[in-house]
Design a protein that fits this description.
- The structure is a single chain.
- This protein has one domain.
- It is about 75% helix and about 0% strand.
- It contains twelve helices and no strands.
- It is globular and about 45 Å long.
Amino acid sequence: MTQQRLSRSGYLFAALAALCWASSGTAAKFLFLSGITAFELVQLRTTLATGIVLCWILLHDRSLLAIERRDIVYFVTLGVGLAAVQFTYLFAISKIQVAAAILIQYQAPIFVALYTLFFLGVKLPPVVFAAMAGSLFGCYLVVGGYSMDLLDMNRAGVLSALASAVTFAWYTVRCEYGMKRYPPWTVVFYGLLFAAVTWNIFHAPLSAFLRPSGFAQWGWVLFIAFFGTVLAFICYTEGIKRIGATRASITATLEPITAGLIAWLLLGETMEMWQILGAALVIASVIAMQASKTTGKTAESPP
């Protein structure tokens, strides 16, 4: 695969991850309103997702399970980080508006870029910073941030959303590190495995499986486990592998746009002019990055 095609596929994978996450956010809110807690949902989604990925690996390529003993600590910390990402986000949307939680979480590209710049010593091209600013401001407009007063929201929800931004950034850069040695499926599987172990320790083991009742609840749980977890994280990890952590995290800010589109198609919700302009700004920012001819042997280049 040529470098250009590899880059394009990376943006596509990151965009697909955003679509999967967007479609699962509303489903999670429905489950919270029906009585399932964030603790229970994160245990359900990580445990089910781990089982799904394990079955796929056993059927297709068992060699993906092989890791070196020295890397066990890395995968344990990656899994704990992933557990934190999922819980903080789910807890946030259980306490505040989904749009507000998304807005705060998508400050993550800032943390990713700062880590890449100051800790890895990578000089990012100006187009990346411009795209980051454009996508974040566009995200702010899309979710209607201009009409929200964060200071009046549930403080625990706001702090949890901010923690989600930090942990999501940390997970992103750690994934990039892991894929210098292992394929994306291996990184995602062990990340999910240790995330599931974490939430079966902090919450009574498998107790969450007794909570959903009826076809609707179980249907949404399975939807979140597959589309919002397995497919989303596989696509996002593939995106990181092809275009790097910073570009993938910025591309993932397409999530609010896809969430708005889903709401328009399924719920008949409309978007204000500022929201439409914000959507256009996010898309333009991602296109600008994709069109950039800047290359270099940095950590932002595919390994």
